[in-house]
Amino acid sequence: MKQYAIIFSLFLLLLGTSSCKEWLRTDSEDRIMEDALFSNEEGFNTALNGVYIGLLNTNLYGQKLTTSTFDILAQYYDTSKPLNTHVYRNLTNFDYQTTKDAVKDIWTQAYAMIGNLNTILEHCETNRVVLSEKGYHLIKGEALALRAMLHFEVLRIFGPVYKYEPGKECIPYSNDTEKEVKPLLAATTIADYILNDLKDALDLLTGFDPVITEGNVINDKGDNRFRYRGQRLNYFAVKALMARVYLYIDDTENAGIYANQVIDEAAKFFPFATREQVNGQAASGAVSQSSENRIFSPEILFGLYNSKRLTDTFDKLFSNKLEPKNVLKMTDAGVAQLYDEEGDLRTCQWQSMRDIEANDGRFFVKYGEVTDLGYEYANLMPIVRISEMYLIAAECDRKVNRLDELRAARKISQLHSTAGLDAYIEDEYVREFIGEGQLFWYYKRKGVTTLRRLYNPSLDDMEIKISNYQFDLPDEEQKRRQ
Description:
Blueprint: H1 8-15, H2 27-37, H3 41-54, H4 69-73, H5 89-92, H6 96-126, H7 133-158, E1 169-171, E2 185-186, H8 187-205, H9 211-214, H10 235-248, H11 252-266, H12 275-278, E3 300-305, H13 309-318, H14 332-338, E4 350-354, E5 360-364, E6 380-385, H15 387-397, H16 401-409, H17 421-432, H18 439-446, E7 450-451, E8 462-463, H19 475-480
Antiparallel strand pairs: 1-2, 3-6, 4-5, 7-8
Helix pairs in contact: 1-3, 3-6, 6-7, 7-8, 8-10, 10-11, 10-15, 11-15, 15-16, 15-17
Protein backbone atom coordinates (compact mmCIF):
# COMPACT_ATOMS: atom_id res chain seq x y z
CA MET A 1 0.00 0.00 0.00
CA LYS A 2 1.32 3.41 -0.96
CA GLN A 3 2.75 5.45 1.92
CA TYR A 4 1.02 8.78 2.36
CA ALA A 5 2.73 11.79 3.89
CA ILE A 6 1.15 13.40 6.93
CA ILE A 7 -1.48 15.75 5.55
CA PHE A 8 -0.39 19.26 4.71
CA SER A 9 -2.32 20.96 7.48
CA LEU A 10 -0.24 19.17 10.11
CA PHE A 11 3.02 20.51 8.76
CA LEU A 12 1.56 23.96 8.29
CA LEU A 13 0.73 23.97 11.98
CA LEU A 14 4.27 22.89 12.75
CA LEU A 15 6.17 25.13 10.36
CA GLY A 16 4.02 28.23 10.47
CA THR A 17 5.02 30.47 7.59
CA SER A 18 6.55 27.92 5.21
CA SER A 19 5.69 28.63 1.58
CA CYS A 20 3.67 26.22 -0.52
CA LYS A 21 6.74 25.60 -2.70
CA GLU A 22 8.43 23.86 0.21
CA TRP A 23 6.12 20.88 -0.35
CA LEU A 24 8.14 19.90 -3.41
CA ARG A 25 10.72 18.00 -1.35
CA THR A 26 12.74 14.84 -1.60
CA ASP A 27 11.97 11.80 0.52
CA SER A 28 14.88 12.61 2.82
CA GLU A 29 13.59 16.12 3.41
CA ASP A 30 10.14 14.74 4.13
CA ARG A 31 11.68 12.41 6.71
CA ILE A 32 13.41 15.36 8.41
CA MET A 33 10.08 17.20 8.65
CA GLU A 34 8.41 14.06 9.96
CA ASP A 35 11.08 13.54 12.60
CA ALA A 36 10.69 17.16 13.70
CA LEU A 37 6.94 16.73 14.05
CA PHE A 38 7.34 13.70 16.29
CA SER A 39 10.12 15.11 18.43
CA ASN A 40 7.70 15.90 21.28
CA GLU A 41 4.26 14.96 22.53
CA GLU A 42 2.72 18.15 21.22
CA GLY A 43 3.72 17.11 17.70
CA PHE A 44 2.05 13.73 18.14
CA ASN A 45 -1.13 15.47 19.22
CA THR A 46 -0.91 17.81 16.23
CA ALA A 47 -0.62 14.80 13.93
CA LEU A 48 -3.52 12.94 15.52
CA ASN A 49 -5.71 16.05 15.53
CA GLY A 50 -4.94 16.37 11.83
CA VAL A 51 -6.39 12.92 11.25
CA TYR A 52 -9.56 13.84 13.13
CA ILE A 53 -9.83 16.92 10.91
CA GLY A 54 -9.20 14.77 7.83
CA LEU A 55 -12.11 12.51 8.77
CA LEU A 56 -14.39 15.46 8.04
CA ASN A 57 -13.47 15.40 4.35
CA THR A 58 -16.65 15.19 2.27
CA ASN A 59 -15.49 11.78 1.01
CA LEU A 60 -15.55 10.46 4.57
CA TYR A 61 -17.69 11.52 7.54
CA GLY A 62 -18.15 15.05 6.28
CA GLN A 63 -20.74 13.73 3.86
CA LYS A 64 -20.51 10.42 1.97
CA LEU A 65 -20.25 8.07 4.97
CA THR A 66 -22.97 9.92 6.88
CA THR A 67 -25.44 12.15 5.09
CA SER A 68 -25.45 11.41 1.38
CA THR A 69 -24.27 8.36 -0.58
CA PHE A 70 -25.46 5.44 1.52
CA ASP A 71 -28.60 7.07 2.85
CA ILE A 72 -29.55 7.81 -0.75
CA LEU A 73 -28.99 4.15 -1.64
CA ALA A 74 -31.09 3.17 1.38
CA GLN A 75 -34.03 4.91 -0.35
CA TYR A 76 -34.62 7.69 2.15
CA TYR A 77 -34.97 10.49 -0.38
CA ASP A 78 -37.29 11.28 -3.26
CA THR A 79 -35.18 11.93 -6.36
CA SER A 80 -37.99 11.42 -8.87
CA LYS A 81 -38.68 15.14 -9.21
CA PRO A 82 -38.11 17.28 -11.14
CA LEU A 83 -38.80 14.55 -13.67
CA ASN A 84 -35.60 12.51 -14.04
CA THR A 85 -33.35 15.55 -13.55
CA HIS A 86 -32.45 15.21 -9.87
CA VAL A 87 -28.67 15.14 -9.37
CA TYR A 88 -28.93 11.98 -7.26
CA ARG A 89 -31.46 10.15 -9.44
CA ASN A 90 -28.97 7.68 -10.92
CA LEU A 91 -27.49 6.94 -7.50
CA THR A 92 -30.93 6.21 -6.08
CA ASN A 93 -31.45 3.70 -8.90
CA PHE A 94 -28.10 1.94 -8.30
CA ASP A 95 -26.75 2.94 -11.71
CA TYR A 96 -23.48 1.01 -12.00
CA GLN A 97 -21.15 3.79 -13.14
CA THR A 98 -22.72 6.32 -10.78
CA THR A 99 -22.28 4.12 -7.72
CA LYS A 100 -18.74 3.26 -8.76
CA ASP A 101 -17.87 6.95 -9.12
CA ALA A 102 -19.57 7.78 -5.83
CA VAL A 103 -17.27 5.54 -3.77
CA LYS A 104 -13.91 5.74 -5.53
CA ASP A 105 -12.72 8.78 -3.57
CA ILE A 106 -13.77 7.16 -0.30
CA TRP A 107 -11.13 4.50 -0.97
CA THR A 108 -8.44 7.11 -1.70
CA GLN A 109 -9.24 9.30 1.29
CA ALA A 110 -9.64 6.42 3.73
CA TYR A 111 -6.30 4.88 2.88
CA ALA A 112 -4.66 8.31 2.99
CA MET A 113 -5.86 8.69 6.58
CA ILE A 114 -4.79 5.13 7.35
CA GLY A 115 -1.34 5.96 6.03
CA ASN A 116 -1.16 8.95 8.35
CA LEU A 117 -2.22 6.79 11.27
CA ASN A 118 0.44 4.20 10.44
CA THR A 119 3.06 6.94 10.54
CA ILE A 120 1.83 8.05 13.96
CA LEU A 121 1.81 4.46 15.21
CA GLU A 122 5.33 3.84 13.93
CA HIS A 123 6.63 6.88 15.79
CA CYS A 124 4.77 5.87 18.96
CA GLU A 125 7.39 3.13 19.22
CA THR A 126 10.49 4.75 17.71
CA ASN A 127 9.92 8.01 19.60
CA ARG A 128 8.24 6.64 22.71
CA VAL A 129 10.81 8.34 24.93
CA VAL A 130 9.24 11.75 24.19
CA LEU A 131 5.75 10.58 25.24
CA SER A 132 4.32 10.55 28.72
CA GLU A 133 2.83 7.24 29.84
CA LYS A 134 -0.71 8.63 29.54
CA GLY A 135 0.08 10.30 26.22
CA TYR A 136 1.45 7.07 24.77
CA HIS A 137 -1.60 5.03 25.75
CA LEU A 138 -4.14 7.59 24.53
CA ILE A 139 -2.41 8.48 21.27
CA LYS A 140 -1.62 4.92 20.26
CA GLY A 141 -4.99 3.63 21.45
CA GLU A 142 -6.94 6.21 19.48
CA ALA A 143 -4.76 5.76 16.38
CA LEU A 144 -5.25 1.98 16.37
CA ALA A 145 -9.00 2.37 16.83
CA LEU A 146 -9.22 4.94 14.02
CA ARG A 147 -7.25 2.64 11.72
CA ALA A 148 -9.66 -0.19 12.48
CA MET A 149 -12.72 2.01 12.00
CA LEU A 150 -11.57 3.21 8.57
CA HIS A 151 -10.73 -0.30 7.41
CA PHE A 152 -14.20 -1.38 8.54
CA GLU A 153 -15.79 1.35 6.44
CA VAL A 154 -13.78 0.21 3.41
CA LEU A 155 -14.71 -3.43 4.10
CA ARG A 156 -18.41 -2.59 4.25
CA ILE A 157 -18.22 -0.77 0.93
CA PHE A 158 -15.84 -2.91 -1.13
CA GLY A 159 -16.28 -6.23 0.64
CA PRO A 160 -18.85 -8.95 -0.03
CA VAL A 161 -22.08 -9.57 1.84
CA TYR A 162 -20.31 -11.27 4.71
CA LYS A 163 -23.03 -13.80 5.52
CA TYR A 164 -22.77 -15.25 2.01
CA GLU A 165 -19.09 -14.90 1.02
CA PRO A 166 -16.92 -14.41 4.12
CA GLY A 167 -13.88 -15.94 2.44
CA LYS A 168 -13.94 -13.66 -0.61
CA GLU A 169 -10.83 -11.55 -1.19
CA CYS A 170 -11.73 -7.88 -1.23
CA ILE A 171 -9.40 -5.22 0.24
CA PRO A 172 -5.89 -4.89 1.69
CA TYR A 173 -5.16 -4.19 5.35
CA SER A 174 -2.57 -1.44 5.68
CA ASN A 175 -0.75 -1.72 9.01
CA ASP A 176 2.69 -0.30 8.22
CA THR A 177 4.36 2.53 6.27
CA GLU A 178 5.86 0.41 3.52
CA LYS A 179 5.20 1.41 -0.08
CA GLU A 180 4.53 -1.96 -1.69
CA VAL A 181 1.09 -2.89 -2.95
CA LYS A 182 -0.50 -5.06 -0.30
CA PRO A 183 -2.49 -8.14 -1.30
CA LEU A 184 -6.25 -8.33 -1.24
CA LEU A 185 -7.33 -10.38 1.76
CA ALA A 186 -10.38 -12.44 2.56
CA ALA A 187 -13.16 -10.60 4.37
CA THR A 188 -12.66 -12.93 7.35
CA THR A 189 -8.99 -11.95 7.57
CA ILE A 190 -9.81 -8.25 7.33
CA ALA A 191 -12.37 -8.63 10.11
CA ASP A 192 -9.76 -10.36 12.29
CA TYR A 193 -7.28 -7.53 11.72
CA ILE A 194 -9.95 -4.95 12.55
CA LEU A 195 -10.92 -6.69 15.76
CA ASN A 196 -7.29 -7.18 16.77
CA ASP A 197 -6.65 -3.45 16.35
CA LEU A 198 -9.75 -2.64 18.39
CA LYS A 199 -8.75 -5.08 21.14
CA ASP A 200 -5.25 -3.59 21.30
CA ALA A 201 -6.77 -0.10 21.40
CA LEU A 202 -9.06 -1.12 24.24
CA ASP A 203 -6.12 -2.54 26.21
CA LEU A 204 -4.16 0.69 25.74
CA LEU A 205 -7.05 2.93 26.77
CA THR A 206 -7.98 0.86 29.81
CA GLY A 207 -6.78 2.63 32.94
CA PHE A 208 -5.75 5.75 31.02
CA ASP A 209 -8.82 7.13 29.24
CA PRO A 210 -10.51 9.59 31.64
CA VAL A 211 -13.88 8.88 30.00
CA ILE A 212 -14.02 5.59 31.94
CA THR A 213 -14.43 7.28 35.31
CA GLU A 214 -15.35 10.86 34.49
CA GLY A 215 -17.35 10.77 31.29
CA ASN A 216 -17.35 13.16 28.38
CA VAL A 217 -16.69 16.68 29.70
CA ILE A 218 -13.92 16.76 32.24
CA ASN A 219 -12.64 19.81 34.08
CA ASP A 220 -9.03 19.44 33.04
CA LYS A 221 -7.86 22.95 32.27
CA GLY A 222 -4.45 21.90 31.11
CA ASP A 223 -5.14 19.84 28.00
CA ASN A 224 -8.15 19.52 25.72
CA ARG A 225 -7.15 15.95 24.87
CA PHE A 226 -8.57 14.90 28.21
CA ARG A 227 -11.80 16.87 27.82
CA TYR A 228 -14.77 16.27 25.53
CA ARG A 229 -13.80 12.63 25.17
CA GLY A 230 -16.94 12.08 23.11
CA GLN A 231 -15.13 13.89 20.32
CA ARG A 232 -12.29 11.37 20.41
CA LEU A 233 -12.43 7.67 19.65
CA ASN A 234 -12.58 6.86 23.35
CA TYR A 235 -12.75 3.65 25.38
CA PHE A 236 -16.55 3.32 25.22
CA ALA A 237 -16.68 4.13 21.50
CA VAL A 238 -14.07 1.42 20.85
CA LYS A 239 -16.23 -1.14 22.65
CA ALA A 240 -19.22 0.04 20.65
CA LEU A 241 -17.30 -0.41 17.40
CA MET A 242 -16.38 -3.92 18.50
CA ALA A 243 -20.07 -4.68 18.99
CA ARG A 244 -20.81 -3.26 15.52
CA VAL A 245 -18.07 -5.32 13.86
CA TYR A 246 -18.96 -8.54 15.67
CA LEU A 247 -22.58 -8.17 14.64
CA TYR A 248 -21.55 -7.51 11.02
CA ILE A 249 -19.70 -10.83 10.94
CA ASP A 250 -22.64 -12.55 12.64
CA ASP A 251 -20.86 -13.23 15.94
CA THR A 252 -23.96 -12.40 17.96
CA GLU A 253 -22.50 -13.71 21.21
CA ASN A 254 -19.61 -11.24 21.30
CA ALA A 255 -21.68 -8.46 19.76
CA GLY A 256 -24.21 -8.80 22.56
CA ILE A 257 -21.52 -8.93 25.23
CA TYR A 258 -19.88 -5.68 24.11
CA ALA A 259 -23.16 -3.88 23.45
CA ASN A 260 -24.42 -4.68 26.93
CA GLN A 261 -21.09 -3.67 28.46
CA VAL A 262 -21.31 -0.27 26.79
CA ILE A 263 -24.85 0.21 28.07
CA ASP A 264 -24.00 -0.88 31.61
CA GLU A 265 -20.77 1.13 31.84
CA ALA A 266 -21.44 4.22 29.74
CA ALA A 267 -25.15 5.03 30.00
CA LYS A 268 -24.57 7.17 33.09
CA PHE A 269 -22.14 9.33 31.10
CA PHE A 270 -23.97 9.19 27.75
CA PRO A 271 -27.67 9.14 28.69
CA PHE A 272 -30.58 9.35 26.30
CA ALA A 273 -31.51 12.91 25.38
CA THR A 274 -34.49 14.29 27.29
CA ARG A 275 -37.52 15.99 25.80
CA GLU A 276 -36.33 19.26 27.33
CA GLN A 277 -32.94 18.99 25.63
CA VAL A 278 -34.43 18.02 22.30
CA ASN A 279 -36.92 20.87 22.41
CA GLY A 280 -34.27 23.40 23.35
CA GLN A 281 -35.91 24.17 26.67
CA ALA A 282 -33.92 26.62 28.79
CA ALA A 283 -33.73 26.62 32.58
CA SER A 284 -36.47 29.26 32.60
CA GLY A 285 -38.79 26.77 30.93
CA ALA A 286 -38.93 28.69 27.67
CA VAL A 287 -38.70 26.64 24.49
CA SER A 288 -36.63 27.91 21.59
CA GLN A 289 -36.58 26.20 18.21
CA SER A 290 -33.27 27.97 17.58
CA SER A 291 -31.58 25.80 20.23
CA GLU A 292 -33.23 22.42 19.55
CA ASN A 293 -30.84 19.54 20.11
CA ARG A 294 -31.95 17.61 17.04
CA ILE A 295 -28.89 15.31 17.04
CA PHE A 296 -29.56 14.12 20.63
CA SER A 297 -25.96 14.93 21.55
CA PRO A 298 -25.83 13.57 25.14
CA GLU A 299 -25.91 10.01 23.79
CA ILE A 300 -23.21 10.35 21.12
CA LEU A 301 -20.31 8.10 22.10
CA PHE A 302 -18.12 9.43 19.32
CA GLY A 303 -18.74 12.44 17.12
CA LEU A 304 -16.64 14.84 15.10
CA TYR A 305 -16.62 18.59 15.62
CA ASN A 306 -17.45 20.10 12.24
CA SER A 307 -17.44 23.89 12.17
CA LYS A 308 -18.79 23.74 8.60
CA ARG A 309 -21.65 21.40 9.34
CA LEU A 310 -24.29 24.00 8.48
CA THR A 311 -22.70 25.28 5.27
CA ASP A 312 -21.26 22.01 3.94
CA THR A 313 -23.99 19.62 5.06
CA PHE A 314 -27.36 21.24 5.59
CA ASP A 315 -27.04 24.08 3.09
CA LYS A 316 -25.74 21.78 0.32
CA LEU A 317 -28.04 18.80 0.83
CA PHE A 318 -31.18 19.53 2.82
CA SER A 319 -32.00 23.25 2.77
CA ASN A 320 -35.37 24.51 1.52
CA LYS A 321 -33.36 27.18 -0.33
CA LEU A 322 -31.93 24.61 -2.74
CA GLU A 323 -33.38 23.98 -6.18
CA PRO A 324 -35.67 20.94 -6.16
CA LYS A 325 -33.22 18.99 -8.31
CA ASN A 326 -30.51 19.34 -5.66
CA VAL A 327 -32.31 18.88 -2.34
CA LEU A 328 -32.63 15.61 -0.42
CA LYS A 329 -36.11 15.30 1.07
CA MET A 330 -38.99 12.89 1.54
CA THR A 331 -42.58 13.24 0.52
CA ASP A 332 -44.88 14.35 3.32
CA ALA A 333 -46.39 10.86 3.30
CA GLY A 334 -42.93 9.36 3.65
CA VAL A 335 -42.15 11.43 6.74
CA ALA A 336 -45.53 10.55 8.26
CA GLN A 337 -44.94 6.84 7.59
CA LEU A 338 -41.60 6.89 9.42
CA TYR A 339 -43.10 7.27 12.86
CA ASP A 340 -45.68 5.08 14.57
CA GLU A 341 -46.62 7.79 17.04
CA GLU A 342 -46.78 11.57 16.83
CA GLY A 343 -44.99 11.99 20.15
CA ASP A 344 -41.77 10.37 18.87
CA LEU A 345 -38.95 12.76 19.79
CA ARG A 346 -37.28 12.17 16.45
CA THR A 347 -40.06 13.96 14.59
CA CYS A 348 -38.24 17.19 15.51
CA GLN A 349 -35.73 16.34 12.78
CA TRP A 350 -38.32 17.29 10.15
CA GLN A 351 -39.88 20.72 9.77
CA SER A 352 -42.52 22.13 7.46
CA MET A 353 -41.03 24.77 5.17
CA ARG A 354 -41.66 26.40 1.82
CA ASP A 355 -39.17 25.83 -0.98
CA ILE A 356 -37.92 28.35 -3.55
CA GLU A 357 -40.85 27.50 -5.83
CA ALA A 358 -43.33 28.31 -3.02
CA ASN A 359 -44.23 24.66 -2.44
CA ASP A 360 -44.75 23.46 1.11
CA GLY A 361 -43.02 20.32 2.32
CA ARG A 362 -41.20 18.58 5.14
CA PHE A 363 -37.46 19.19 5.21
CA PHE A 364 -34.76 17.28 7.10
CA VAL A 365 -33.32 19.71 9.67
CA LYS A 366 -31.24 17.40 11.87
CA TYR A 367 -28.16 19.36 10.83
CA GLY A 368 -29.89 22.69 10.44
CA GLU A 369 -28.89 25.92 12.10
CA VAL A 370 -28.71 26.25 15.87
CA THR A 371 -28.74 30.03 16.20
CA ASP A 372 -28.49 30.27 19.97
CA LEU A 373 -24.80 30.52 20.81
CA GLY A 374 -22.84 28.25 23.13
CA TYR A 375 -24.24 24.87 22.15
CA GLU A 376 -21.52 22.38 21.20
CA TYR A 377 -24.03 20.18 19.39
CA ALA A 378 -24.47 22.87 16.73
CA ASN A 379 -21.32 21.56 15.05
CA LEU A 380 -21.31 17.89 15.99
CA MET A 381 -21.49 15.01 13.49
CA PRO A 382 -22.57 11.73 15.14
CA ILE A 383 -20.48 8.67 14.28
CA VAL A 384 -21.36 6.21 17.07
CA ARG A 385 -24.27 6.62 19.47
CA ILE A 386 -25.36 4.54 22.42
CA SER A 387 -28.82 3.84 21.00
CA GLU A 388 -27.19 1.48 18.49
CA MET A 389 -26.00 -0.63 21.42
CA TYR A 390 -29.60 -1.11 22.56
CA LEU A 391 -30.55 -2.33 19.10
CA ILE A 392 -27.57 -4.68 18.93
CA ALA A 393 -28.33 -6.06 22.39
CA ALA A 394 -31.98 -6.61 21.48
CA GLU A 395 -31.05 -8.45 18.29
CA CYS A 396 -28.36 -10.59 19.89
CA ASP A 397 -30.11 -11.42 23.17
CA ARG A 398 -33.49 -11.94 21.47
CA LYS A 399 -35.12 -10.00 24.28
CA VAL A 400 -37.39 -7.02 24.06
CA ASN A 401 -36.23 -5.14 27.16
CA ARG A 402 -33.37 -3.24 25.47
CA LEU A 403 -35.64 -2.28 22.57
CA ASP A 404 -38.30 -1.07 24.99
CA GLU A 405 -35.70 1.04 26.79
CA LEU A 406 -34.88 2.78 23.53
CA ARG A 407 -38.54 3.22 22.65
CA ALA A 408 -39.24 4.68 26.08
CA ALA A 409 -36.44 7.19 25.59
CA ARG A 410 -37.97 8.21 22.24
CA LYS A 411 -41.37 8.62 23.99
CA ILE A 412 -43.19 5.87 22.13
CA SER A 413 -45.12 2.88 23.47
CA GLN A 414 -43.62 -0.31 24.85
CA LEU A 415 -43.78 -3.66 23.07
CA HIS A 416 -43.43 -6.02 26.04
CA SER A 417 -43.30 -9.02 23.67
CA THR A 418 -40.70 -10.48 21.31
CA ALA A 419 -43.36 -11.08 18.67
CA GLY A 420 -42.18 -9.39 15.47
CA LEU A 421 -38.90 -8.37 17.15
CA ASP A 422 -36.81 -8.25 13.97
CA ALA A 423 -39.30 -6.03 12.16
CA TYR A 424 -39.39 -3.62 15.10
CA ILE A 425 -35.59 -3.50 15.21
CA GLU A 426 -35.47 -2.69 11.51
CA ASP A 427 -38.01 0.08 12.01
CA GLU A 428 -35.81 1.62 14.69
CA TYR A 429 -32.75 1.47 12.41
CA VAL A 430 -34.82 3.33 9.83
CA ARG A 431 -35.82 6.07 12.28
CA GLU A 432 -32.74 6.29 14.43
CA PHE A 433 -29.90 6.86 11.96
CA ILE A 434 -31.20 9.18 9.25
CA GLY A 435 -28.27 11.32 8.17
CA GLU A 436 -25.78 8.96 9.82
CA GLY A 437 -25.34 6.38 7.04
CA GLN A 438 -26.11 3.21 9.00
CA LEU A 439 -29.31 1.81 7.49
CA PHE A 440 -27.72 0.66 4.23
CA TRP A 441 -25.22 -1.47 6.17
CA TYR A 442 -28.05 -3.03 8.16
CA TYR A 443 -29.58 -4.07 4.85
CA LYS A 444 -26.25 -5.40 3.56
CA ARG A 445 -25.59 -7.37 6.75
CA LYS A 446 -29.02 -8.96 6.44
CA GLY A 447 -28.75 -9.54 2.68
CA VAL A 448 -31.99 -7.61 2.06
CA THR A 449 -32.90 -7.50 -1.65
CA THR A 450 -36.27 -5.75 -1.34
CA LEU A 451 -35.82 -2.17 -0.19
CA ARG A 452 -38.68 -0.05 1.06
CA ARG A 453 -38.97 3.23 -0.82
CA LEU A 454 -39.06 5.12 2.43
CA TYR A 455 -39.46 8.47 0.74
CA ASN A 456 -42.84 7.50 -0.70
CA PRO A 457 -44.75 4.58 0.89
CA SER A 458 -47.27 4.50 -1.96
CA LEU A 459 -44.62 3.07 -4.31
CA ASP A 460 -43.74 -0.59 -4.67
CA ASP A 461 -40.57 -1.82 -2.99
CA MET A 462 -37.32 -1.67 -4.95
CA GLU A 463 -35.74 -4.95 -6.00
CA ILE A 464 -31.94 -5.08 -5.97
CA LYS A 465 -29.32 -7.80 -6.36
CA ILE A 466 -26.88 -9.01 -3.71
CA SER A 467 -24.13 -7.86 -6.07
CA ASN A 468 -25.35 -4.26 -5.63
CA TYR A 469 -23.91 -4.30 -2.12
CA GLN A 470 -20.28 -4.85 -3.19
CA PHE A 471 -18.74 -1.91 -5.01
CA ASP A 472 -15.90 -2.36 -7.47
CA LEU A 473 -12.42 -1.22 -6.52
CA PRO A 474 -11.53 2.13 -8.12
CA ASP A 475 -10.04 1.85 -11.62
CA GLU A 476 -6.75 3.36 -10.46
CA GLU A 477 -6.44 0.74 -7.73
CA GLN A 478 -7.21 -2.06 -10.16
CA LYS A 479 -4.51 -0.80 -12.54
CA ARG A 480 -1.96 -0.81 -9.73
CA ARG A 481 -2.70 -4.48 -9.18
CA GLN A 482 -2.29 -5.61 -12.78
